[in-house]
Amino acid sequence: MKTEQHDADTYGQELARISQHQSEATDARFTVFQALAAVRIGHEQADDIVSKVEAGAVAGAHTWVSESSAPHGSEERFEDGWFAGVRDVASYLLRIADTTATAQRGRAASSAMLLAHLQQPTSPAPEEAPVEEPAPVPTLDAKNVLAAAERFPWALAAPGTRHWPDGEFLDVALSAVRTEERDGYIERLEAFVEQHRARLEELLRAYGPGSRPASHGRYALIGQPETLVILERMETNPFGLRGQWEKELEDVLLDDLEFAWGPRIRLPGRRTRVTRMIFRVTRVRLRVSLHAHPRGR
Predict the structure, then answer these.
(1) What pLDDT sits at residue 190?
(2) 88 vs 83, 85, 94, 142, 249, CA distance in Å?
(3) Are the beta carbons of 206 and 231 closer than 8 angstroms?
(4) Which of 100, 108, 113, 130 pairs as cysteine with 43 (C-beta 3.0–4.6 A)?
(5) Contact at 8 Å (CB) between 66 and 90?
(6) Residues 6 or more apart whose Cβ sits within 8 Å of residue 197
């Protein structure tokens, strides 16, 4: 019992430290994009520069993990379990480095949009100016949006295997659609789905109902019609989506979807996939090895 409590406390401290690093990294990335924009480096080139730096950081973690060794004096089978865990984690880090170097696009544009919004001056209207009625805000009919998503069966799980057949989570995703994007949003969604068809098919195959990751109770949003809207918002307005989501829903569902999709901007959340995987895979393998071949037996 004491050992399990110690593991939980240690893991909690690790998550807190990782969360701090993620928050600081987001601030630093924002500053870098500002600096690159100031010297007239375009969004695409800025994304490429920052992605390569981040991929290099992941590659550095790969090196550290790959060069780790079992405790001195360990038995041979204990070492075998140790190195098997190290190989699994190192391979996973390599895939993350490859994805980071090539798939992180649009973040410079998102940062520029956020900066422009923060710097927008507020100028009060002159006292003598007549008060104008605000223009009506275009509305989005959730039923029409959901019906549009249903027109892409190759991106959706079979109705009988869906977790939420009534379209839950759609309201939160639609609340992240900005006013100026509401006119023609269904056409925007349809274009997004067609553009990313291969990626969506692979997402459903790898993480959807019936997949190995889903068998562990994770990635429950994948295959839902409303998830197409969530992914479109994740690409188009990640700050807005994360802000609306955290007001209403558990982060873990969005975190899982964000991880499986590999979005163009990953905002700091409460969990860190690499840290959790390293900790769990290595601990499980070591426990299996120790249980089968304890020292002194």
Answers:
(1) 94
(2) 9, 5, 10, 43, 32
(3) no
(4) 108
(5) yes
(6) 154, 155
Matching residue, tokens 């507020």: 122
pTM of the prediction?
0.48
Per-residue pLDDT tens digits for 81-107:
878 887 888 787 787 777 776 766 666
**Whole-number percent of the chain with pLDDT over 90:** 22
Q: What's the confidence (pLDDT) of residue 24?
A: 76
* pLDDT (0 to 100) of residue 155: 92
HEC assignment per residue over the chain: CHHHHHHHHHHHHHHHHHHHHHHHHHHHHHHHHHHHHHCCCCHHHHHHHHHHHHHHHHHHHHHHHHCCCCCCCCCHHHHHHHHHHHHHHHHHHHHHHHHHHHHCCCHHHHHHHHHHHHHCCCCCCCCCCCCCCCCCCCCCCHHHHHHHHCCCHHHCCCHHHCCCCCCCCHHHHHHCCCHHHCCCHHHHHHHHHHHCHHHHHHHHHHHCCCCCCHHHCCCCCCCCHHHHHHHHHHHHCHHHHHHHHHHHCCHHHHHHHHHHHCCCCCCCCCCCHHHHHHHHHHHHHHHHHHHHCCCCC
Q: Tell me, what's the pLDDT at 272?
A: 44
Q: In Å, what is the CA distance from 78 to each residue of 7, 60, 158, 280, 283?
A: 20, 26, 44, 16, 12
**140, 98 Cβ separation under 8 angstroms:** no
Summarised one tens digit per residue, pLDDT across range 8-45 is 567 667 666 766 776 677 777 768 777 877 878 877 77
Query: Of 256, 268, 283, 275, nearest to 92 (Cα)?
Result: 275
Mention every residue, 6+ apart, whose C-beta is less than 8 A from residue 58: 93, 96, 97, 100
